[in-house]
Amino acid sequence: MNRLLILVVIVLLSIGGGQKAHANVLPLPTPTIEISPQTLAALSSSDYVTVGMALFSAQSQADIDALNGLFQRLLKRELTRYAAHTADRPPTLSQRLMATITGVRSVPEFNTRTLTSLKPGDIVLRRSNRDGCATRQTVPGCRAWAADYANAALYYGTVHGIPMIYESTLQHGVRLVPLSRWHQRGTYVGIYRLKQTLSNQRTACATFVQRYGSNGRTPFNATQTNKASDTTVSSAQLVWLYYRAHGINIDSNNSLYAHWLRTGYSPLVASYIANHAVAPDEIALSPALTRVAHGWLP
After folding, report:
1. Crossing angle of the two packed helices 235-244 and 201-212, in degrees rounded to 10
2. DSSP string of the chain?
3. pLDDT digits over 212-259, tens only?
4. pLDDT tens per residue, range 14-26
5. Is pTM beyond 0.85 here?
6. Between the ranges 44-48, 206-210, 259-263, 272-276, where is the mean pLDDT highest?
7. 108-138 pLDDT per residue, tens
8. Where are the domains positioned within the chain?
9. Which CATH architecture has domain 90-296?
10. C-alpha pair distances (Å), 74 with each of 79, 120, 224, 250
11. Which of 25, 128, 235, 237 lies at a 20 to 30 A Cα distance from 277?
């Protein structure tokens, strides 16, 4: 009985001592989110150009998150101001650009048979409604930089008989998904193919997927800029990186697109974006590609 009593006392003392020791442990400091001096200066300025240049040259997700909300508010005001200057141009610059992208070219309309004729390495561009980003922003800020196409993806080939595409989205990052995810009624699609022949594209696609992952390992590039860096990757950037690995630049840097871009941003911000980013529309205008099919998905 005495041994049992001693044992109980020892256990109680151990618990009490543990609680006391625990009570004396200082709480861990809350981690601070560091943003760059450039970001701090831009936030305090509330100037559109300053904030835009800081955002599109940001090197960390913390800077992007800190700047993005303010930039979107300033951009909305800037777009309204520029719209007043461009609305009376007959035809509008947007119409000219869309006509140049979609063109009057003798290519077949997209239909269900188009899916069976896709080849590994083909580029799939799309917009989600008749007016694209003019009425519904499917990608952050796309109203300012997407005249026609808002998304891009690379056709991978079939996996167990299922056609697959390689894409990057804001919600999921870079991943390999069934092409049927893009087959939505009321979506306008353009299929583009490299003019020159590349051997064994299926193997090249598989190697490319290994590099960036197939299930969101590589996050989405929210600013769309810094296309040569691949720590984060946007949809058009993903396609551009694939062909850059083959020594082919499919970023057209089209002058009409750059001119149109300046009507949505100030010239300074627009020039930075044009030089450091690649957009789906710029891919569509690439002289290295040919459009093999286009149209509204049935």
Report:
1. 120
2. -HHHHHHHHHHHHHHHHHHHHHHHSPPPPPPPPP--HHHHHHHHHT-HHHHHHHHHT--SHHHHHHHHHHHHHHHHHHHHHHHHHHTT-SS-HHHHHHHHHH-S---PBP-GGGGGG--TT-EEEEESSTTGGGT--SSTTHHHH-SS--EEEEEEEEETTEEEEEEEETTTEEEEEEGGGG--TT-EEEEEEESS--S-HHHHHHHHHHHH-SBS-SPP-TT---TT--SS--HHHHHHHHHHTTT-------HHHHHHHHTTS-HHHHHHHHHH---HHHHHT-TTEEEEEEEE--
3. 999 999 999 877 778 888 999 999 999 999 999 999 999 999 988 888
4. 444 444 444 455 5
5. no
6. 206-210
7. 565 656 667 899 999 999 886 555 554 444 4
8. 35-88, 90-296
9. Alpha-Beta Complex (3.90)
10. 9, 41, 18, 31
11. 128
> Which single residue is written with the structure tokens 């239909």?
111
